[in-house]
């Protein structure tokens, strides 16, 4: 009796290189594998290539060289509809994602565009809002919500597509401490792969057991988040700084 085939990793990036039309080389042979259900922080200084890498994950940018696979599926033109369902990106500013008159309509937009209708669509919307604790706000206009509430709705718009990978761009930015904690609790509860692009190193340590440092278009380090943040020489070399007085060794790592 043959053994069952192991599921493909959520993300496989191999030899990814990319230069912009002006000739600027943003990525140099990036290799990265992220297993199903992992939470990984993508760290690095401004200009390191983090955004360029993320834009390859759902085909917004075409690989100049190398390959990107999502759940075993190559990120290629004929796969883009399925890839964009599987890779959900939550932007830093929720107002870039929320444009409908009500929260319900915003969350329904993606699934409806994919062909869902009626009870199935309503179920998908309700499920996504419940996942982020916003089910009581379905009929509210998004612009009447607090910034933290809008960010949770933005996450719900992506979860409504039932993605394989949730990519978060600076998820803790501009949040008050309570909203920051609430979002962390939500992210821990989700059964998806998470790739978090952030400069908030304590938040990365709190939520992501693993971290990758991208610097000058290449991966400079890939290890346990706590180990990376405790390496003062590595941090200094890649312009990463912890908040004053914060000691990563004092944090008890959870799952």
Mean pLDDT: 92
CATH class category label: Alpha Beta
Number of helices: 9
Are there runs of 5+ residues with pLDDT below 50, and where? none
Report how far apart the termini are. 35 Å
CATH H-level homologous superfamily name: P-loop containing nucleotide triphosphate hydrolases
> How does CATH name the architecture?
3-Layer(aba) Sandwich
How many structural domains are formed by the residues?
1
SSE string, helices as H and strands as E? EEEHEEHEHHHEHEHEEHH
Produce a short descriptive summary.
Part of an ABC transporter complex. Responsible for energy coupling to the transport system. Probably part of an ABC transporter complex. Responsible for energy coupling to the transport system. The chain has 255 residues and is an alpha/beta fold.
Structure description:
With 255 residues, the protein is an alpha/beta fold. It has a single domain (11-240), classed as 3-Layer(aba) Sandwich (Rossmann fold), CATH 3.40.50. The protein has nine helices and ten strands. It has helices at residues 50-57, 80-86, 103-113, 118-131, 147-159, 177-189, 201-207, 225-230, 232-237, and strands at 11-19, 25-34, 39-43, 65-70, 73-74, 87-90, 165-169, 193-197, 210-215, 218-224. A six-stranded mixed sheet has the order 6-7-8-3-9-10, with helices on both faces. Helix 3 crosses helix 4 (118-131) and helix 4 packs across helix 5. It is globular. The model has no long low-confidence stretch (mean pLDDT 92). This is ABC transporter ATP-binding protein. InterPro entries: AAA+_ATPase, ABC_transporter-like_ATP-bd, ABC_transporter-like_CS, ABC_transpr_CbiO/EcfA_su, Co_trans_ATP-bd, ECF_ABC_transporter_ATP-bd, P-loop_NTPase. Keywords: ATP-binding, Cell membrane, Membrane, Nucleotide-binding, Translocase, Transport.
């Amino acid at each position: 009796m043959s053994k069952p085939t192991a599921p493909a990793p959520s993300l496989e990036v191999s030899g990814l290189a990319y230069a912009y039309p002006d000739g600027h080389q943003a990525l140099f042979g990036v290799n990265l594998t992220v297993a199903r259900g992992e939470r990984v922080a993508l760290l690095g200084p401004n200009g390191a290539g983090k955004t360029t890498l993320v834009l390859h994950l759902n085909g917004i940018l075409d690989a100049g060289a190398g390959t990107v696979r999502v759940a075993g599926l190559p990120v290629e033109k004929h796969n883009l509809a399925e890839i964009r369902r599987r890779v959900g990106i939550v932007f830093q500013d929720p107002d870039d994602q929320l444009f409908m008159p009500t929260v319900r309509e915003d969350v329904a937009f993606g699934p409806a565009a994919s062909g869902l209708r009626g009870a199935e669509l309503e179920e998908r919307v309700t499920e996504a809002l419940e996942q982020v604790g916003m089910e009581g706000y379905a009929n509210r206009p998004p612009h009447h919500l607090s910034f933290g509430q809008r960010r949770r709705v933005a996450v719900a718009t992506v979860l409504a597509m039932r993605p394989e990978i949730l990519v978060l761009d600076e998820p803790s930015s501009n949040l008050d401490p309570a909203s920051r904690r609430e979002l962390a609790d939500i992210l821990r509860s989700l059964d998806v792969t998470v790739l978090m692009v952030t400069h908030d190193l304590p938040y990365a340590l709190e939520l992501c057991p693993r971290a990758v440092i991208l610097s000058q278009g290449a991966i400079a380090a890939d290890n346990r988040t706590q180990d990376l943040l405790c390496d003062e020489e590595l941090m200094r070399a890649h312009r990463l700084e912890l908040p004053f007085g914060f000691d990563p060794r004092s944090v008890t790592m959870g799952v």
